[in-house]
Design a protein that fits this description.
This protein is of the alpha/beta class. It has one domain: Rossmann fold (3-Layer(aba) Sandwich). Helices cover 54% and strands 14% of the residues. The protein is globular, with a radius of gyration of 16 Å.
Length: 195
């Protein structure tokens, strides 16, 4: 089983790239399980989404807590199943939404405790571009979707990506260019794995 993670700011293109990768792999006759967080099929994911639309510190902590529980649930339920590929959208970078320095401590704890991969992609989009995309397609914004919040979270997430095993992908480019880079990295990693 090959574990792939796609993470990044809101509107960085994570879900789009995950669906494209899933379609590509299934076209290659591979079995794929795709899991997007926060998910809609369990209490933790639903609660995460609920708190993301509220304001205040308690909603902030509640959304982060339920998000982490949603991811842990996914790991426990799905990471052991027999698939050629398991793709998680949003994973460890949810810790970047926590206040400093808690985000670093929590990241290191989870990076040690949960499965990781050489195929963890951080889709790095400029906050201004992410904010433009959000405003273009969404009527209602989550608590972290202001330009100021996007700037703050990107700085923390990029720091975590650079100290971790993440492949940082410039997500300001076209969907096709990003997809090509992800596929190239995937092919290179599989070649190393098979050697």
């Amino acid at each position: 089983m090959i574990f792939v993670v796609l993470d990044g700011l809101d509107a960085s293109g994570k879900s789009t790239q995950a669906f494209n990768l899933c379609n590509f792999l299934t076209g290659q006759r591979k079995t794929v399980y795709l899991r997007i967080h926060p998910s809609n099929d369990n209490f933790f994911g639903v609660k995460t989404k609920h708190f993301l639309y509220l304001k205040g510190k308690s909603a902030h902590f509640a959304s982060a807590l339920f998000y982490m529980l949603d991811v842990i649930r996914s790991i426990l339920l799905y990471s052991w199943r027999k698939y050629d590929y398991v793709i998680f959208v949003r994973y460890l970078m949810g810790t970047a939404y926590l206040p400093q320095p808690l985000h670093r401590i929590t990241y290191h704890f989870f990076a040690f405790a949960v499965p990781t991969s050489n195929l963890m992609f951080f889709l790095d989009v400029k906050p201004e571009e992410a904010y433009r995309r959000i405003r273009q397609v969404r009527e209602k914004h989550e608590m972290f979707e202001s330009l100021e919040e996007l700037e703050r979270i990107r700085a923390k997430a990029l720091y975590l990506a650079l100290i971790g095993k993440w492949i940082v992908v410039n997500a300001n480019r076209s969907v096709d260019e990003i997809e090509s880079e992800i596929r190239t990295s995937l092919v290179e990693e599989i070649s190393l794995y098979n050697d």
